[in-house]
Design brief:
Elements (H helix, E strand, L loop, with lengths): L29 H36 L21 H11 L13 H16 L2 E2 L7 E2 L2 H11 L33 H20 L1
Antiparallel strand pairs: 1-2
Length: 206
């Protein structure tokens, strides 16, 4: 009979003495020190590069923009703190933007500007005001103007002689009024609806 061949190692496995209950050999910290040193060098080099790039960019911007004048002002945005969507932040942004001459960059999509424009138009349309600086002409409310036109009628323009219609042409027929010429935006309609709801709530609470 042939003795089975031992293809493994001729050495017996190393026996570990676990009687002490802990590892007796020390930890090799060479690899850890190399990693920490390399990481520290990388962080320092990156910080120096970022600082240098920032200096170059700021120098170029200052060279292109020029020194501050009466139209420009350096603002510390850190005073604004976080950027939550609240009225206080909007007021601070509005104060900053009011320091620049018009036309200014809009802080919203323009709905508020259109609403303010319509409010100014309503003031002119619904109240008496001077139409010129010399106080020789008066602007009257539109409701009063419509009453006067209904009483007196529109001035009659002189007849205009028109050429005879050519073959195949018809006299255009216009049905008046086409439009009132004024329409509220969706933003203003939402504001009016919110104000109406708030007014109803206040009345119900009384």
């Amino acid at each position: 009979m042939h003795k089975p061949e031992n293809h493994g190692s001729d050495h017996e496995p190393e026996k570990i003495d676990a009687s002490a209950g802990f590892e007796k050999s020390d930890v090799k910290i060479t690899g850890i020190l190399v990693f920490i040193t390399a990481l520290s060098i990388f962080v320092v080099v990156t910080a120096i590069l970022c600082y240098g790039i920032g200096k170059v960019i700021n120098a170029r911007m200052n060279r292109e923009d020029g020194p501050n004048n009466k139209w420009t002002k350096t603002v510390d945005i850190r005073q604004l703190g976080n950027l939550p969507n609240n009225p206080d932040l909007q007021n601070k942004v509005a104060e900053l933007t009011q320091q620049f001459p018009t036309p200014r960059v809009q802080t919203d999509d323009g709905n508020q500007d259109v609403s303010d424009l319509h409010k100014r138009e309503d003031i002119l349309l619904d109240n008496y005001s001077w139409a010129d600086a010399a106080h020789t002409r008066v602007r009257i409310p539109i409701e009063r103007a419509m009453e006067l036109i209904a009483q007196r009628g529109l001035p009659v323009a002189p007849a205009v002689q028109s050429a005879p219609l050519m073959t195949g042409e018809n006299t255009p027929v216009i049905q008046a009024p086409l439009t009132s010429g004024f329409a509220r935006t969706g933003f203003e309609l939402e504001q009016e609806a919110a104000q109406a709801i708030q007014a109803r709530r206040q009345e119900s609470n009384k």
